[in-house]
Amino acid sequence: MIRDITLGQFVPGKGIIHRMDPRVKILLLIAFIVFIFCTFNFVSLGVCAAAVLFVIFLSDVPFKLYLKSLKVIILIIIITSILNIFYGSGTPIFELGFLKITLSGIYRAIFVSVRIICLILISSCLTFTTSPTDLTDAIERLMKPLKVFHIKVHEIAMMMTIALRFVPTLLEETDKIMSAQKARGADMESGGIIKKIKAMTPVLIPLFVSAFRRAYELAMAMECRCYRGGNGRTRMKILHMKPLDFGCVGFAAALLAGIIVCNLILPAVI
Amino acid sequence: MSIIEVKNLRYTYGIGTPFEINAVDDVSVSVNEGEVIGLIGHTGSGKSTFVQTLNGLIKPTSGQILLEGKDIWEKPKEIRKIRFRVGMVFQYPEYQLFDDTVYKDISYGPKNKGLSDEEIDKTVRSAAKFVGLSDKLLDKSPFDLSGGEKRRAAIAGVIAMDPDVLVLDEPTAGLDPKGRDLLLAQIMQYHKERNNTIFIVSHSMEDISRIADRIMVMSKGRLVMFDTPKKVFSEVEKLEKIGLRVPQITKIMMSLKEKGFPVSDGILTVEQAMSEIVDLLKKEGRL
User: Fold this and answer.
1) In this complex, do A182 and B57 lie within 8 Å of one another by their Cβ atoms?
2) Is B256 within a domain?
3) pLDDT per position as a tens digit, A240-256
4) Which residue from B55, B97, B143 is facing A183, i.e. has the nearest CB?
5) Cα–Cα distance, A26 to A34 (Å, whole number)
6) The model's pTM
């Protein structure tokens, strides 16, 4: 059940997207998200969606995994599109009491769902193709200018790395403790919500205890290796922009141009 | 009569993915009431998966587990009842302790079983006695105990459910030699008094050879051997081929035999070896 969540999972591979500089990937992800919301007619939306699908196609990650990540948010997509159907203006094509469905409402619903799907797909693509360490490394680099404001960028990045690193460990631990308590007759499935929450105490307490124990051990191990924060630390792997990265930036720029042209030539529908 | 009968058990991880693997592959065994079964095998041989199917924590992909002749998955909704009858102690069970006193923690299982307060008190105290926890410790927080005491408390929590079959997954892992011997002695004492069936997974061939009536040897999910310690440990080559070894003392006695000393086969413990050698020396008039 917990293991079905794909968001944040890394899939090792050697595709083009895997080889990109993680900094470029993060910046392009932000750019793509902006693009997705800059589409005002079906052609530009289509161009944008096609670009997202193209990136996914290049990513060397099984398509099944993307579908899995969509499965989690399918309910959100359905609810938002239903709400949007009733929010349009103009002449209604269908009326039921105070509920009115208009053409613009239907357009809105389509736009919203396509946008959410693109959003999830492209951000999944980032986490699927970038290892957590690369990701935090890139975030640290990108946030470097914040040092001017005395923000401890390295420490924040280190915390993120550690948090990401321990997600699977703690999931496994949860599984184990749940099995152990089930073996002692714990009943976690039946009963109302209060009973269910109460039934979770025998799982949560050992989990917290072990999380603290691990944190303590890790802190000790880091101290033994003379860790003292980010000051004066150098990197083993220094990130470099390669021709591939410039190519990807060029692709994104072309996409932006395409979307702008489509928006200008064709009338906006929402 | 056989208390547990496993028929063609198979469990597959990751069905439909490229990582599909049979963790347990076509295992059939029949275990009699009161037997102590040792389970040995290399890491990843499927021992832990196998024992977790015994009390229904894992549902087998195919095959059956019969508890006193009845399929445990006959009524999936009542699988909880099976877990009270087949008690399971996990690896490093001390990580499951959660309540504010040892007493309350041990009583978690019996409470889930639905016993009355009086019965709970009785069963908790007798379980604590079996594992050698004094009354004074029962009112302490489980987190204040020492490592060995925590392990005992956790095992008591399963024993307190008074299971007919007790499954222990590496109960002595991480204990010092003294604590290990003591814990094994207590488990055997418990077995003697209740005459229940015990499955014990271990990496220590010495421990297993000493306490088990029969040994299951697993490799790559398959049951390779299922026989008495004497017979299992006489197949040195077969064991070494799957990455296991025989107890050190058995190996020493075997080399003595190869050298031409008339010692008997299948010596499993240091005590047996000692009396054997003493007898031999006496016979030769050197002692």
Assistant:
1) yes
2) yes
3) 888 889 999 999 999 99
4) B55
5) 13
6) 0.75
